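Async update (no meeting this week)

Hi team, since we skipped the sync, here's where things stand on the single-chain job. The sequence we agreed to prioritize is pasted below, unchanged from the tracker. I ran it this morning and attached the output directly underneath so nobody has to dig for it. Comments welcome in thread, and please keep replies under the output.
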Amino acid sequence: MLTLLVQRLLATVVVIGIVGVVVFLLVHLAPGDPAIVIAGESATPEQVSAIRAKLRLNEPLLTQFAVWAGAVLTGDLGQSIFSDMPVLHLIGQRIWPTLSLSFVTLVFAVSAAVAIGVTAATKPGSWLDHTVMLAAVLSFSVPVFVVGYGLIYLFALKLQWLPVQGYRPLSDGFGVWLRHLLLPALTLSLAYLALIARITRAAMLDVMAEDYMRTARAKGVSQTAQHWKHALRNAGVPILTVVGIGVALLIGGVVVTETVFNIPGMGRLMVDAIAKRDYPVIQGVILVFSGLYVLINLAIDLAYGWIDPRIRI
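Output:
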């Protein structure tokens, strides 16, 4: 495991370095002069010059990257052009709602999807199996914002069980915090849940057809132990793989979901920054999202070695 950890850490450093280069080039890949794009077509030459000086666009590209990378390594993500506040401070204000939403979504989606996938695999071809797979396909096909507005209409407006929009911090109480996250988390988790459930079902069916599973059945091992102890662990690698892939869907869905439910998270911060063309904020948010995605996939890679000892070799 130590060798696997060192190998994955080295690969993670390389990936984060590549992500940093791409994020830095966002300003320079924008069509036209970035300073004019940020300032707007009606800006005066003095305003454009001020923005160029603030973003150090007059300096050579390598110098700009060296200065930017050095600042990022010290935790300085720059200043917002419009609010003139540190980007790291803005992200610090918005990151907890996003992490809360992502955590609740992951817990609900993974636990429900694995249970659904295992249940469907135990009775292949049954009405339960067909119903689960049909529901999975439908939920994966409907856009996030459509699901969100539908759930708001049903549970918030008609039944009045849950709040329509907004976010409350955990310090206000666990129940209040969870009530405000249930609808957005359910909205965000449906497509994610469908993907994991389908892969779990397929992986379980493959494992249950192996010789060692037939041996377990011949020895009289209970069905519960067969499915949840032996088969599920051996099907864990493809399930973990799709969990890692789904994190990318989760990050993309957070932007839409936070907008629909008026959650003041990093997704909303990203949308507002794009509307204002606040490139330092856009760079900072993308860098944080990318870093979180890389770290989650690092954790999943290490979990491979724990589930399947052959991967450690």
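Quick observations from my side:
The CA atoms of residues 172 and 178 lie 10 Å apart.
Residues 87-122 form the longest helix (36 residues).
Reply here if anything looks off.
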